[in-house]
Amino acid sequence: MLEVLDAWPVLPVILKSDDVLPSRLPYPKSDQRWDNILAALESEHYHRIRGIEISVRTNSRWERFAAAMQKPLPELTHLQLSASDVVLVLLDSFLGGSAPHLQELRLTKISFPSIPKLLLSANGLVKLSLLDIPDSGYISPDAMATALTVMTELESLQFGFRVPRSLPDPASRSLHPPTRFVLPALFRLEFKGVHEYLEDLLARIDAPLLYYLHIRFFMDLDFNLPQLHRLIGHAEEFKELDRAEVMISGDLTRLALTSKTRAKCEPELPLTLTIIYEELESQLSSLAQICSSSFPLISTLKGLEIWGDEGPPSDWPVVMEGARWLEFLDPFAASSLTNLYLTNDVALHVCSALLELSRERVTEVLPALQKLFIFDEYPSEGSRKAVAIFVAARRCSGHPVSVHHGPWSSGEGEDSEWEDGD
């Protein structure tokens, strides 16, 4: 390895472990490749290293690698470290405590409690990803926000914990609102953790150019999200979002917002809020709290889609009673929602819930609703009956709803020619 480096011109060096390389190419065997990587780090040519992409599976390899990374790498611009089967720890002296030229940093399942100090020296970061942070690597919202203040070029921030025990310390909270600063280039923000942590962090930052926002919350019974609502409301790109999609799965519930025009040209959803839970019982209540009347995009919604991943779980009829559906749908009373998209079994529960309202109140929950789309050309008898009674009640109230059966995908509706089934 050293002979090769001595023979080559003075060019940048990129180090990659076999885990991150295409398997179809004839690379050296794993042990030999690791010997080459470590030889380069320990040689006099370490100052030429421009990028490192390492995935580590054993503690023995990590110990030698971490020891070799205690000195500054003056040309390092890209660093990606991940642990596969073990939790790895970085010491305070990692990279000599400074990385002035770093543009991209990605750590996965790495414990690095002193990382805020390193980040303060990396004011040229464009992409920062700290994923699956273990308990031993906890970073307080205040320390994280302080590190972010220097990142005027940061475009992408991915930040998340492995477990829900990432609550900020109440004693560390100031009695006065923190000073807020702007991340002028940030267009992507992803977070996984408890909502209290995110609220503490967002109280300190603003991101007017935000284009993608993906949040994964661990389950809680009381979601209070004024800072998240503020961030969404200040992002100009989100003001065009007029469609909501709700997916209920076996271990999570996801709310996604998009628009018909945006969905056509971009495969990625611009805004998703996911709740990770172990029980179904409280999922709709939690989602209702997130979609409260203070949610800044509620009033602009035109379409709402609700579906169960691979069909509703068998215990839906037990835990998803009408009151919970009404609680979830209630914030949409402030919207101009005209189209509602439901899978067959969801239609049964939603329409049955709406029928629990009196005839005089049947239009209160979805006052602007005009079209109901049901994903099933052959709906069940229970679903068909519930829909028919709901449609009749709406007609009697002077707010008729047309029903359409058949396959649909997000964004369809206005231009469809499905058979009217009412």
Short description:
The chain is built from 13 helices and 19 strands.
Structure description:
The structure is a single chain. This protein is of the alpha/beta class. Helices cover 27% and strands 23% of the residues. The protein has 13 helices and 19 strands. The strands form 3 sheets. It has a 15-stranded mixed sheet. It has a two-stranded parallel sheet with strand order 4-6. Strand 18 (371-375), helix 13 and strand 19 form a beta-alpha-beta unit. Helix 9 packs parallel to helix 11. The radius of gyration is 26 Å and the shape is elongated. The N and C termini lie far apart (75 Å).
Main sheet specs: 15 strands, mixed
Helical proportion, percent range: 25-40%
Rg measurement, Å: 26 Å
Q: What best-fitting shape do the alpha-carbon axes yield? A: elongated
**Average pLDDT, all residues:** 82
Total strands: 19
Poorly predicted runs are 23-28, 410-422
The structural class is alpha/beta
Distance between the termini: 75 Å
